[in-house]
Design goal:
three-stranded antiparallel sheet; S-adenosylmethionine decarboxylase; alpha+beta
């Protein structure tokens, strides 16, 4: 039985999994109130919840003072900052396309809108925002749909004589038939997944972006840009700091910045539009946030359908289909589970 370990904030009822509490069929999620994100100091909180499938255990521990690198004073490091900061950004765009032709047209449309060149432009701007230098870009569009882009980056600008000759530095030239992606501790990747099914009027478009950096640059600085670059109905964010770095005296440091929630780095105006849930493991420097759009504007979800020609029953049916799809993705569970 695997627990969700998190702070004892608001326990939110999950409507797709049962009632609030630990009875048969009960499921628990937890969230941090916005005020708590802003006011609580970094580090493990004094009250923790162990949230199991059908059991809630409350653990109360004595508060301890937590001091992290770089919060109050700069630490002189021995060599390079070896901490790796990894952000996984996953979004879903939901669409109602009734006929088979409409589904195919939607997939074609979204695939063209987010082809490898546009994704390359997004990642290039992302690199610029976080202050990284591009060493190499590999991109590919797939059949029947989907695209991938991989960008190798460095924290500091490198002399051309030090850059591997296989790197294109973001300037595309005539390449060989086989393209090899370069991966390092610092890289950006994006993959797209358009999807539909003949038995379902709902089509989805998923984008996975991974940003891995080392040194002083942080992927969190690009969060608002990434959210604004896509039509995001559902957003899943994972952030983790791995490894350690040392000061000149040899002392290890496992964190070099303040964070108690990914939501700290998202524009408050954006957060107002979404429901948000956190699952954080502070002792392991693991942070997870899920977001789902609050209001469904039907016209934004219809493909090749005039909303003015829909009757009330049709509007309710489509709204229910969209809501069900979004909740299943958000909670990671279907009505049949």
């Amino acid at each position: 039985m695997q627990p969700f370990l998190g702070k004892g904030g608001d326990v939110e009822e999950d409507p797709t999994r049962g009632t609030r509490g630990g009875g048969p069929g009960g499921r628990f999620w937890w969230s941090l109130p916005k005020s708590d994100h802003q006011n609580r100091p970094p580090g493990p909180p004094p009250g923790w919840l162990l949230l199991f499938r059908d059991i809630m255990i409350v653990l109360v521990i004595k508060p301890i003072k937590v001091v992290m690198l770089g919060l109050n004073k700069k630490i002189k490091l021995y060599g390079f900052n070896n901490l790796t900061k990894a952000l996984s950004f996953n979004i879903y765009d939901i669409c109602y396309a009734k006929s088979e032709k409409d589904k195919n047209d939607y997939i074609k449309y979204i695939d063209e809108q987010y082809n490898s060149q546009r994704l390359t432009n997004i990642l290039s701007e992302l690199a610029n925002i976080i202050g990284a230098n591009i060493l190499n870009i590999s991109k590919q569009d797939y059949e029947p749909q989907g695209a991938s882009v991989t960008v190798l980056i460095s924290e500091e600008k490198m002399c051309c004589s030090l850059v591997d000759p296989s790197c294109n530095k973001g300037e595309f030239v005539q390449l060989k038939d086989c393209i090899v992606a370069h991966l390092d501790k610092s890289h950006l990747t994006v993959h797209t997944y358009p999807e539909s099914h003949p038995d379902n009027e709902i089509s989805t478009f998923r984008v996975d972006i991974d940003v891995s950096t080392c040194g002083e640059i942080s992927p969190l600085n690009a969060l608002n840009f990434l959210i604004g670059s896509f039509d995001s109905d559902i957003i899943t964010l994972d952030y983790r700091v791995r490894g350690f770095t040392r000061d000149v005296g040899g002392r290890k440091f496992f964190m070099d910045h303040n964070i108690n929630s990914i939501q700290n780095y998202i524009d408050p105006k954006t957060l107002e539009k979404y429901r948000a849930i956190d699952v954080n493991v502070y002792d392991s420097n693991i942070f997870h946030t899920k977001m789902m759009i609050k209001e469904i504007e039907l016209n934004d979800y219809l493909f090749n359908i005039d909303p003015n020609k829909l009757n009330l029953n049709e509007i309710k049916y489509i709204n229910d289909k969209i809501s069900t799809e979004m909740e299943e993705i958000y909670y990671g569970r279907t009505d049949d589970d």
